[in-house]
From TrEMBL:
EC category name: hydrolase
Active-site residues, as the UniProt record annotates them: 314, 403
GO biological process: proteolysis
Molecular functions per Gene Ontology: alanyl aminopeptidase activity; metallopeptidase activity; zinc ion binding
Peptidase M1 leukotriene A4 hydrolase/aminopeptidase C-terminal domain mapped to chain residues: 480-618
Organism, as annotated: Sphingomonas parapaucimobilis NBRC 15100
Protein's UniProt name: Aminopeptidase N
Keyword annotations of the record: Cytoplasm, Hydrolase, Metal-binding, Metalloprotease, Protease, Signal, Zinc
Keyword Signal: yes
Similarity section: Belongs to the peptidase M1 family.
Keyword Protein transport among UniProt keywords: no
Binding site for Zn(2+): 313, 317, 336
Endpoints of the signal sequence: 1-20
Length: 620
């Protein structure tokens, strides 16, 4: 990074005083079954990392210094550990402290129990395992530039314990700082404020970051690679590999306006800068809301800005999720449902009602499909507030329901109380609970105290929405007035109308709707007609490509197979990859043989998160 760019980054940092670390909630519903921590005895308030990124052995090693707040008589601190090699545990004066690593289970890892001996500072020297779940070490071939290796972390939901020994629970907020040592050719970025860097020495340098606002520990993130920065405004910019920098900067040129739009809805953006890191194609998610630095898949780079709602979504998490955080993974909908609602409001304010309605209507269909996938409206997996089994990977319970049923619930509240009361309430809600964890019951209590008038609670059916399965009858379905024409076109085309009657040059959302509305069984002749006119086997718009491939593979349309192979080996976003493999796997021997052939080629390029899902689908 140039000195000028560094100076700009440093200058833009906020100087507002850091909020105090929020206490851990004590109510029974706030107990996190996915962490070994016993925060009411002793809890971590600050994590200070001094780490060396070893690209030869794929290990992060160094020291984590934990600041602890504990009851006067607390004997021990319990932190989460997934596969770490613990070297020493000492107090601030480097005197050894007794510790034990308990029995590990596959999902949660093990408790690391440290005897405090009256100390409130604990230093852990450790190393991550080469297969640490939160870390993906990419070879140069797996990057866009092909010359340098790359590392990125993904903490949500409970992966950060594989590289940071701390209390890995979303209800235990922590401030942090980090100094990371890496090869000089690589730039280190993190989800915090950049505070300095050292010059190159013996081929290595360090970069320092800090987050002085207490955050849930799943939000600590790092990426190291051949990264360049392009500012988009004084407070926003893009980090990515040089080969993707211009394309990314063009796609997200409106970033600053997104922040302004979001602030106009729900109050000030409290994190200082807002930058986006565009990752290599193996990034398993669409996006991840790491504070100050959203991580995003390159599959949003459609070339026409048509998929930017993903950025609206990750930005919205700067309020819902990062500011007010699900206390446990049972409350995941508080993160994702609020964010999906907020995302759509940002889209409306940026692009107008037409675009927002199309996206909301597509999400309605996604919601209906999610209910079916969960096993129907009676399934407990369709509840907003989950009751995740301690033994189950929280990732399994975290479905599209949290997103789309969550957003629909909030839209239903809006329709009952009216937009102006609802918006004023939400703004106050984010203020009241800023930098604190929240449970479902806590939100409902706040709603009843600060918004609902007599009769409205029953009219909305608040408890049913949150604690019962299925979609309540009063759910507000936003209908796009662009879709009836698209639906009619799909119907007519399926019935044999010429392909020339299919509307051309419509929006991405309309094409996706068109493809999803077509019957799942379509003749090769009909598919060939679409192929010839729209060339969807080659489109670089990932959402259209995905919708097309789902349809074409369902019919085993031969020309789609090479396209599927290309798409599945070129990116590893789980949302695209898993359904396509699932589709093939359900098609008997020939589909399974194709799935196997493609997966054999693609698997090593995927992130562990995607590998685990596809392994399961293909019975590996
Ligand atoms: N926070 C999520 C990603 C996530 C969820 C990671 C659960 C690990 C566990 C992120 O904000 C998200 O929802 N991403 C979506 C895109 C969004 C536009 C719906 C995704 O990755 O598909
Ligand atoms: Zn999200």
């Amino acid at each position: 990074m140039s000195l000028a760019a560094l100076a700009m980054l440093l200058a833009a940092q906020s100087s507002a005083p850091a909020p105090a670390v929020a206490p851990v909630l004590t109510s029974a519903d706030a107990r996190d079954v996915h962490s070994y921590a016993q925060p009411l005895e002793a809890r971590v308030t600050h994590v200070s990392l001094n780490l060396y990124a070893d690209f030869d052995t794929h290990v992060m090693r160094g020291i984590a210094t934990l600041s602890v707040d504990a009851k006067p008589d607390a004997r021990q601190l319990v932190v989460d550990d997934n596969g770490l090699r613990i070297v020493t545990v000492t107090d601030a004066q480097n005197r050894p402290l007794p510790y034990t690593v308990g029995a590990a289970d596959k999902v949660h890892g093990a408790p690391l129990t440290i005897t405090l001996n009256g100390n409130r500072t604990v230093k852990i020297a450790y190393a991550s395992a080469p297969g640490a779940k939160a870390l993906q070490w990419l070879s140069p071939e797996q990057t866009a530039g092909k010359k340098q290796p790359y590392l990125f972390s993904q903490g949500e939901a409970i992966l950060n314990r594989s590289w940071i020994p701390t209390q890995d629970s979303p209800g235990i907020r922590q401030t942090w700082d980090a100094t990371v040592n890496a090869p000089c050719a690589l730039t280190v970025v993190m989800s915090g404020e950049r505070t300095g860097e050292t010059p190159c020495h013996d081929g290595r340098h360090t970069a320092s970051y800090r987050m002085d606002k207490p955050v849930a520990p799943y939000l600590i993130a790092v990426a190291i690679g051949d990264l360049k920065f392009k500012p988009l405004s004084a407070h926003t910019g893009i980090w990515t590999e040089p080969a993707m920098l211009d394309k990314s900067a063009w796609e997200f040129a409106g970033l600053d306006k997104f922040v302004t739009a979001a602030e106009g809805l729900y109050g000030p953006y409290r994190w200082g800068r807002y930058d986006v890191l565009v990752l290599p194609p193996s990034f398993p998610f669409g996006g991840m809301e790491n504070p100050m630095l959203t991580f995003a898949t390159p599959t949003v780079l459609a070339g026409d800005r048509s998929l930017v709602s993903l950025i609206a979504h990750e930005l919205a998490h700067s309020w819902s999720g990062n500011l007010v955080t699900n206390a446990t993974w049972d409350d995941f909908w508080l993160n994702e449902g609020f964010t999906s609602y907020f995302e759509n409001r940002i889209m409306e304010s940026m692009y107008g009602k037409r675009r927002a309605a199309m996206e909301a209507d597509l999400a309605w269909t996604d919601m209906q499909n999610a209910v079916k996938e969960a096993g129907g409206p009676q399934s407990p997996d369709t509840k907003l507030h989950l009751d995740l089994d301690a033994k189950r990977d929280p990732d399994d319970g975290m479905t599209q329901i949290a997103y789309d049923k969550g957003a629909t619930f909030l839209r239903t509240i809006e329709s009952v109380v009216g937009r102006s009361r609802w918006d004023a309430y939400l703004r106050g809600y984010f203020d009241r609970h800023a930098f604190q964890p929240q449970t479902s019951a806590g939100f409902l209590a706040d709603l009843r105290q600060n918004l609902l008038k007599p009769g409205e609670d029953a009219k909305i059916g608040v408890d049913q929405w949150v604690y019962q399965p299925g979609i309540p009858a009063n759910a507000v379905h936003v209908r796009s007035d662009a879709f009836p024409a698209i639906d009619a076109a799909a119907k007519a085309f399926a019935a044999g109308d010429p392909v020339s009657a299919v509307p051309d040059k419509v929006t991405t959302q309309e094409y996706v709707r068109f493809l999803d509305q077509l019957p799942r069984q379509l003749s090769a002749e009909r598919l060939a007609a679409l192929d010839e006119r729209f060339h969807w086997n080659e489109t670089g718009n990932s959402e259209i490509r995905f919708a097309w491939l789902r349809l074409a593979l369902a019919n085993r349309y031969p020309p789609a197979e090479a396209s599927a192979e290309q798409f599945l080996t070129a990116q590893g976003r789980r949302k695209f990859v898993a359904p396509l493999f699932q589709q093939l796997q359900g098609q008997g021997e020939s589909g399974q043989a194709l799935a196997k052939r493609i997966y054999d080629k693609a698997r090593s390029g995927y992130h562990a998160v995607t590998q685990v899902t596809v392994d399961r689908l293909l019975g590996r």
